Amino acid sequence: MKPQGPLTGMKVIELAHIMAGPACGMMLADMGADVTKVEKPDGDDSRRFLPPDIEGESAAFMMMNRNKRGIALNLKDPDAITVLRTMLDSADVVIENYRHDTMGRLGLGYETLRKSNPKLVYCAVSGFGRTGPYAERGGFDLIAQGMSGLMSITGEGPGRPPVKPGAPIADITAGFLAALGCVAAYSRAQATGEGQMVDTSLFEAGISLTYWQSAIAFATGQAPGAMGSAHPLNAPYQSFRTRDGWINIGAANQRNWLRLLDVIDAPELDEDPRFGSNLDRMNNLAALVPILESHLEHRDTDDWIACMDAAGLPAGPVMDICQMHRDPQALARDMIVETDHPVAGPVKAIGLPVKFSETPGGVVRPAPTLGQHGQEILAEHGYSQDQIKALKSQGALIVA
């Protein structure tokens, strides 16, 4: 049971844990790839990210590992290495996010694997990449966010403490970039029979999210700082207080600026020289925001959104996560889905954010319990029931 997405037929071995590597595997699986997650005997560390849990199963693990089959191998056992090597010899893609050369020490490095499987796409997701002076450093989302500059542009403004965006965006972005790299390399391998190494990192993922701010720094020689919810290049484009909460308004060009003035009935601002152009509004943003809020605070967010929608002005509420889960657009786009887990029962998850008209992907399989599909997977690779029983008895294959 797997999605009949555009990657149906791609065989992926995921030797990855926690988030960046599993995010890559999740995206490929959601698009139809057959992803086998290989775990250590005590499982992916995110199985212990508790609370919260659902019937004892980690909610975090189940979120990142849906649509995958699972096998648990004790890679300290030479027979388990042999099992894994057999699986890798017929795989299209392998994903790993171990520290530098861990796979090499297991005899499973890229140069070794490509000799027996020339078409293999070997995807390495790490903290800083496989080359350069930081190649051997371990990496975490927080460290990458700080070093990539993201934390310097996040937060309320000058003099305030550094702020990390609430989501682990370096981890998730690295996983999605890795998935894109896998698909690109797989496409070439299908045409030429020649695989390659795909190498990306949390650090580079964080850097890639600084396009606007880097453009400013390249042009001016000065590092832009945090601006709260405001935009570094357009105004007004940020959150504003209303009578009952907050609203995001995207009046990011002159036409939308004039629409905003019509909606809030503030024609006098069109004559104010401080706000005549985008450049003027950016230079006088500190004065502009309280003036706009003095108009907006007299009505509720939903009232303003109705008016702005009618005027063609981009606007939206600032919703919490539970509100987002209930939003009719999120539901209409199948971004909230449900699977039936063998232990946890019905479990909700975030859906596939890319839609395909002819080969739709989707979420159809819950995350595996530890070692759930081990016997099934080994049988597919030619192992007899006696061989599987022997691997279990010696502790090379773990079945929960």
Overview of this protein structure:
This protein has 400 residues and is of the alpha/beta class. It folds into two domains: 11-209 and 327-398, Crotonobetainyl-coa:carnitine coa-transferase, domain 1 (Rossmann fold), CATH 3.40.50; 237-241 and 246-317, formyl-coa transferase, domain 3. 39% of the residues lie in helices and 16% in strands. Strands 8-7-6-1-2-5-14 form a seven-stranded mixed beta sheet, with helices on both faces. The longest helix is centred in the middle third of the chain and has 24 residues, at 169-192. The two termini are 21 Å apart.
Give me some keywords for this one.
formyl-coa transferase, domain 3, 14 strands, 7-stranded mixed beta sheet, elongated, Rossmann fold, single chain, alpha/beta, 17 helices
Give the SSE map.
Elements: E1 11-15, H1 20-30, E2 34-39, E3 53-54, E4 57-58, H2 59-64, E5 68-73, H3 78-89, E6 93-96, H4 102-105, H5 110-116, E7 121-126, H6 141-147, H7 169-192, E8 197-201, H8 202-208, H9 211-220, E9 237-241, E10 246-250, H10 254-264, H11 278-283, H12 285-296, H13 301-311, E11 315-317, H14 321-326, H15 328-332, E12 336-341, E13 345-350, H16 374-380, H17 385-393, E14 397-398
Parallel strand pairs: 1-2, 1-6, 2-5, 6-7, 7-8
Antiparallel strand pairs: 3-4, 5-14, 9-10, 10-11, 12-13
